[in-house]
Every structure is written in structure tokens, then in C-alpha cells.
Amino acid sequence: MLEKILLLLSLSFSVAEELCKPGVGEAYKVRFSIKTALGDQAYPWNKNEMFLFRAALAFAMRDYTNGEEFGVSDVHPCNETPRVSFWFVVTRPNNTELVDKGTVEMAIKKSRNRINGAFLLTDQTLEFDGIYPTLAAPVSPDTPPWLIVFGVVMGAVSVGIIALLVYPLVQRKLKKNMDADDEDSDEETGVKTAENGANDGIYNSTFSDDERFTQM
Amino acid sequence: MKLKLPNPGLDDRIPSHEDLERMETEEAGDRPKWDNKAQYLLTCVGFCVGLGNVWRFPYLCQSHGGGAFMIPFLILLVLEGIPLLHLEFAIGQRLRKGSVGVWRAINPYLTGVGIASLLVSFLVGMYYNTIMAWIMWYLFNSFQDPLPWSQCPLNANSTGLVAECARSTTVDYFWYRETLNTSAAIDDPGSLQWWMVLALFAAWTLLYVCCIRGIETSGKAVYITSTLPYFVLTIFLIRGLTLKGSTEGIKYLFTPDVDELLNPQTWLDAGAQVFYSFSLAFGGLISFSSYNSVHNNCEQDAVLISIINGCTSVYSATVIYSIIGFRATQKFDECQGDNILHLINAFDYPETSITIDNYDQVLTSLNQTNPDIIQGLPLKTCDMQNLLSQGVEGTGLAFIVFTEAIIKMPVSPLWAVLFFIMLFCLGLSTMFGNIEGVVVPLQDLRVLPQTWPKEVFTGVTCLISFALGLIFTLRSGNYWLALFDNFAGSIPLLIIGFCEMFAVIYIYGIDRFNKDIEFMVGHKPNIFWQATWRVISPLLMIFILIFYFVTQVTKDLTYLVWDEEASFPVLEARPYPSWIYVIIFILAGIPSLAIPIFALYKFFQRKCCKDKSYKDHPVDTISAKIEMNGKAKF
């Protein structure tokens, strides 16, 4: 029994070594830049982190294929370097058939954020060679913000122009009214001359001159 | 050298000292006046301190030997700038008219000098306000996070970034494509860009509201537009000095290279910069000075404003270069970081194994062991000096280099808003002087009916300038603006400046001028002013004019284009088409030729209509001295 298990284990290891060949077939290279991303709070790379990676990738495969029961053992890494980069292949659950590159790529693309999040990294610091990050479309609001500011400025300027043009006219009108009032009050205090008091007196026809023109 | 050309009838055309005293005590209702001295000084400082102090002087300083450039600059400031400034202030204050009025009063044959000032102010105002429109566009676009020039847009099928943007930079793309939508040549005008038309409209209406009643309104606006730039410069200095790499920039700016002093181009550039920086020969300073009281100390004002202008140039150069140093350091670090990353990825070394310090060693050792792999890597040479000298002049500085630096700073929108408000204020206060230099001569020339209020004059000027300025909103507008900048605002100004000096010293008469200044200020101008006015400054002006003219004429006329097919993303120099020479002649020739043409016109007018012209010889009686409204005229 023990021998059988040992045989199976060694077989699976050799299978993994045969399946995962760098740069060939369905293998993908992945690169971690933990120190760049996290600086002082970088965690060291070890077997546990590798386990997390395999689990995350298995999750991505499950999510994409809608339920096919991928497990941690279906992700086979190899050629690990101190850079923290390695190659990996994915096999179908329960057999050693390799999953093609295209499917793996779509699965990774779909769950990219989740994989990044598991490692506290970004698209730039957790790179899959050959899978480019989907570009986030730049945020473009419905009304361009500059039109709003333009509207505000033009509104203020128009109010300013109208105010500056109307103000002296208003001032002049006020002044005219004030002057008219002043003149009225002057007339009351001034001497009552013939022109002003003509309505009060009696018209004396003796002194009136019918001839408007001087007789020669 | 007591040369004085004959100038008959001068006394009849100008107010005498007694008239001036009388006008001083009487209420001169129709002529505008400054509310206080500070308003006058702020307006003049605002007119002189403009965009050139921020984006022309630092470039000249750095390219002509850094700290050593201060020497020709200061020498020419003292020998050329201050005397000319004092001259303009004094003659304006004495004759109490705008530029056309002053020159017509000195001698009717000199009216052309005023008209040339008018034309130059008009042409320069047209393109200067377009730069203001660009600044307003950037300002309007700064009220968002992230800033629009920090990202490339995606291409049509969202597979990648737009090619033009990916090949150059985000700031280049935003400037050349989204702002200007520039075409590939000046012959290819394209259509009007509606957003630019809106921005230009905003710029002209804002200018109109500030200048609507001349110095009554602009005098209030200068309290803000002339002081705000200094606050913002100080804020930027403090921010800049706390950023990494700012000292690199300042060192690069001020490192002296004394050999540059032997290069005549350095002196020519220094002289031209002093002349243009003081906004001389536009007519605006004469106009502003004429609103002063007669006994204002114009000598003190001239020295004060010159010192302020010079110091502002140096101060803003320091601020600009601290930010440029920061940008260059950032780009240098990015460049090196990229190179290190390529090496680490290619050879699978751990992340922190290669640093900036051991990069060179590692590269050389790797080059020996694996040269083929090294050849295949896209390693770039990271040159700090090259980064520091990139595009640091003119619109390139403000809209490309500085905006790139801003997006690397934290809280970018704040810095963008501050920067563009500062540029806007600098430009707006200069435009006040330009408008003054156009509107007042128009009123003096009596081209339009005198009864029209000043608001209409200003409105007509702004409307016509806006309509003609629409040419700068075409797709080739950027190239037209460069053309105007090179030719409308250069040689004619030098010619007018020289004519002004000659007219005041030799036609008006240095003796009379000295007596006027003694009457106004209290003491006769000392030997320094005499020497500079009579000999030194005119000679300097002639030298600069001749050398400038020769350099312009001998060099090939080319302009820089943004063309995707050619040497992209670097701007390519392309020769002008032949019909441009007509335009150049109109821009530079017509204002300059206005001086002799008008002199000839007046000459022929006098000759053929000799009997028509008569002089008023007022009869000196008692009744003539008493005015009807009861005021005695003594």
C-alpha cells in the first residue's frame, strides 16, 4: 500500500515536471514585485504564499468555467527564481490534460482584481507575462467640468458688465431727481417774482400791450 | 551734445508750467485720475511684470550661463531700461496726454510715432489675449481630479491608448490635440475650434469688464491682479523647496558660466529682454503717467518699478526652476527605475539586488557575461542635464513642462488652479496697459465721434480684436501666434523706442525737458540721466536694433510643427511658405513705416493747405480772462 502511494506521488511529481515547462505550450510566467508595491510592509515569499497563489488561480478557473471543480493540485508551478517569478500550468480536475492558454487567460482576466487583492498587489506589481491589464476607461463626466466653470465665469462677467453700464445711468437719474427737488425748494424760499407769482395776482389790462411789436 | 532740431510753435501746442499749476489746483473733471499712488504703482508694475518674466527670463538665464547672465541683464537694466522708463513717465506727466497726443504736441510730424504705438499695442493685444484664452482653458480644466492631462484617452475600440498620445506624452497630447487640435502646417488652417472660440470670448469679455471705464475700473482690478502673482509665487517656492530635486534645478539655473559673457548673443538677448520686459514703446506707460498729479516724483517711480521688475524676474526664475528641478529628478528616477526593472526581470534577480548605486557596475558586468541579452533590452540613457534643459521657454514651459510637474505633485488640482490663476493675473494686468495704449490714442485721433462714451471705445476695440483674433482659434492658430510674437512685437517696438528717445531729447529739447523735470520733481536730473538720455541709451538702442534686425534677416525663417509623420514627438522645423513674407511685412513693416509715412502726409498736408492752417493768437484783454461762469482765470 505504502509503495503504491509512493509510486503515485513520484509519478505525479514527474508528471508535474513534465507538464510545466518554461516557455513551452500552455505555460504562463508570473512575476511578483512585492517590495516595490509594499516597501517596508512587504511579506516574504514562501511556500504558504505559493499555496495561496495556487488556490487563487484554482478559484479563478472555477469561477470562469462555472463550477468545474479545480483544486490546488491542478495548478503546477515550476522554475521559481529569487526574483519571485515562476511558470505554471493548469490541468483539468482529475486528469492531466492541460487547460489551453486562452481559457487560462480569460479566467485570470475575469478574476484579476480578486487575485491582486489576495496579495495586496496591483496589475503592475503582479504581472502575468502576456496578459495585459484591461485598461480602465478614463472617467468622463456627462458635462465636461470646464463648461461648468466657464458658465460660472461668464455669468459673473455678464452681471458685472450690466451693472457697470447701468450704474451711471441710474446715478444720473437719481441726481436729476435730487436736482429737481433742490430747485423746487429754492423756488419756495426765493423772492416771488412776476413770473412765479403771476397766477396769484389780477391781470391789469391797463398795462398790457396789445401791440407786440414796437411801433416805428 | 546740445543738438536741438528746430521745432517751431512748440509752446502753443503744450500747456505751460503756469497752466499746469492751474490745472493742478482746479478740478480737472474730464481727465481721469488715480485714486492713490498705490493704484498707479500697482498698474505700472502689473503692466511691466507679465508672462515674459515667468517664461522668457528663466530660459534666457539658464541658456546664457546662469548666474553670469545677471551681469549683462543688470548692466542693461540700468543703462537702458531705467532711463527709457523715466523718460516715458516724465513726458507723459508733463504733457498730460496719451501717446498720440504727446507726440503730436511735441511736433505734428511725429504723430506717426503715436500711431505706430497704437498699431503695435493692437497687434500685440490680439495675440496676447489669445494666450490668456489658453490659460483660461487650462484653468477651467483644472477643477477636476484627476487632471485631464494626466491620462491618455482610449482609442476607438478600447484596445489601447490613442496612438498619438502613446507615442508622445499625456501633456503633449492634451496641449497639441485636445487644446489646440493643431494641424500639421500653417497653410492648413482647418476650422474654428468651438471650445477655443468660447475661451477667447471669455478672455475678451473679462478684459472688457475690467477696462470698461479705463483706469476707473482697471485701477480697482489691479489691487488683485498685480498682487496675487507674488502670493502664488511664494506659495510655489515653499512647495517647490520641499520637493525632492528642487535644489538641482536652482543650481542648474544659477551655475555661472563666465564664458557666455563673451558671446554677443548673450548681450543682445539681455538687451532685448530688458526692453520688452518693461513694456516700453507701447504707449500705455505714457498714458498711465499722464493721469498723475504734476508734481509726482516720476524719477523715484521709474527706479522703483525697474527694481521691482528685475527682482520679480529673478524670483520667478528661482520658483520655476525649483519646480523644473523636481520634474527632472522625478523623470530621472523613473527612467532609472525602468532600467533596473528591465535588468531584474531579464535575469530574475531579487528585487532589491540592483539599486541606483550599483546599477552601473552590474550593467557592465552583465554586458560582459551576457551581451546578447543586454542588447535586446530597451535600456534608456537617463541624462539629468538633458531633462533639465527640456522645453523650458514660452508656452512649452507653462503648458507642457509645468503641467507635467504638477501632475506629479500631491493634490494636483490645487497647484494647477493656483498656477493658472497666477499666469492669468500676470497677463491680465499687462492687457490693461495694452488696451490703454489702443483706446486713448483712438480717442485722441478723433477717429470716432468724441461724444461717444469711453465704454463704447473700449467695447469697439475688444470686439474688433476678438473678431480678428479668431484666426488664432483655427487649427493652425498656434503657428500664427508664433508668427505674431516673433514679428509684431519685436522690431517695431525697438524702432518706436529709439524714435521716442530721439524725439524727446533732440526735438523737444533736453534743456526744456530738464527744466520740466525740475518744475515737476523739484531738482534737475543728475549727470546719470543726462549721460544715459543723450548718448548711452540711444546708442544701445541702435546697436540692439541693428543686431536684432541682422539676426532676423539672415536666419532661415522656419517654424516648429507638430506633425505625426515627421520626427514625432519632437517638433520639426519647417520653412514658411512664401506668402508668409507678405504677412511678416504687414506685421513688422506697417507699424514701423507709419512713422515716416505720417510725417510725409503731414508735410504734404501743410504744403498744399498752407493758407487753411491758421494759428490762434488770442487777444490779451481783461474780459478774455474772466470766464462766464464767474471764475477768474489768472
TrEMBL record, chain A:
<dbReference type="InterPro" id="IPR042944">
    <property type="entry name" value="Collectrin"/>
</dbReference>
<feature type="signal peptide">
    <location>
        <begin position="1"/>
        <end position="16"/>
    </location>
</feature>
<keyword id="KW-0732">Signal</keyword>
<protein>
    <submittedName>
        <fullName>Collectrin, amino acid transport regulator</fullName>
    </submittedName>
</protein>
<keyword id="KW-0472">Membrane</keyword>
<dbReference type="GO" id="GO:0051957">
    <property type="term" value="P:positive regulation of amino acid transport"/>
</dbReference>
<feature type="region of interest" description="Disordered">
    <location>
        <begin position="177"/>
        <end position="216"/>
    </location>
</feature>
<keyword id="KW-1133">Transmembrane helix</keyword>
<dbReference type="GO" id="GO:0070062">
    <property type="term" value="C:extracellular exosome"/>
</dbReference>
<keyword id="KW-0812">Transmembrane</keyword>
<dbReference type="GO" id="GO:0005886">
    <property type="term" value="C:plasma membrane"/>
</dbReference>
<keyword id="KW-0325">Glycoprotein</keyword>
<dbReference type="Pfam" id="PF16959">
    <property type="entry name" value="Collectrin"/>
</dbReference>
<keyword id="KW-0597">Phosphoprotein</keyword>
<feature type="transmembrane region" description="Helical">
    <location>
        <begin position="146"/>
        <end position="170"/>
    </location>
</feature>
<keyword id="KW-1003">Cell membrane</keyword>
<dbReference type="InterPro" id="IPR031588">
    <property type="entry name" value="Collectrin_dom"/>
</dbReference>
<feature type="domain" description="Collectrin-like">
    <location>
        <begin position="24"/>
        <end position="216"/>
    </location>
</feature>
UniProtKB/TrEMBL annotation, chain B:
<feature type="binding site">
    <location>
        <position position="46"/>
    </location>
    <ligand>
        <name>Na(+) 1</name>
    </ligand>
</feature>
<dbReference type="GO" id="GO:0046872">
    <property type="term" value="F:metal ion binding"/>
</dbReference>
<dbReference type="GO" id="GO:0015293">
    <property type="term" value="F:symporter activity"/>
</dbReference>
<feature type="binding site">
    <location>
        <position position="277"/>
    </location>
    <ligand>
        <name>Na(+) 1</name>
    </ligand>
</feature>
<dbReference type="InterPro" id="IPR000175">
    <property type="entry name" value="Na/ntran_symport"/>
</dbReference>
<keyword id="KW-0812">Transmembrane</keyword>
<feature type="transmembrane region" description="Helical">
    <location>
        <begin position="531"/>
        <end position="550"/>
    </location>
</feature>
<feature type="binding site">
    <location>
        <position position="426"/>
    </location>
    <ligand>
        <name>Na(+) 1</name>
    </ligand>
</feature>
<keyword id="KW-0479">Metal-binding</keyword>
<feature type="transmembrane region" description="Helical">
    <location>
        <begin position="112"/>
        <end position="140"/>
    </location>
</feature>
<keyword id="KW-0472">Membrane</keyword>
<feature type="binding site">
    <location>
        <position position="49"/>
    </location>
    <ligand>
        <name>Na(+) 2</name>
    </ligand>
</feature>
<keyword id="KW-0915">Sodium</keyword>
<feature type="transmembrane region" description="Helical">
    <location>
        <begin position="221"/>
        <end position="241"/>
    </location>
</feature>
<dbReference type="Pfam" id="PF00209">
    <property type="entry name" value="SNF"/>
</dbReference>
<feature type="transmembrane region" description="Helical">
    <location>
        <begin position="40"/>
        <end position="57"/>
    </location>
</feature>
<keyword id="KW-1133">Transmembrane helix</keyword>
<feature type="transmembrane region" description="Helical">
    <location>
        <begin position="192"/>
        <end position="209"/>
    </location>
</feature>
<keyword id="KW-0813">Transport</keyword>
<dbReference type="GO" id="GO:0035725">
    <property type="term" value="P:sodium ion transmembrane transport"/>
</dbReference>
<comment type="similarity">
    <text>Belongs to the sodium:neurotransmitter symporter (SNF) (TC 2.A.22) family.</text>
</comment>
<feature type="transmembrane region" description="Helical">
    <location>
        <begin position="414"/>
        <end position="435"/>
    </location>
</feature>
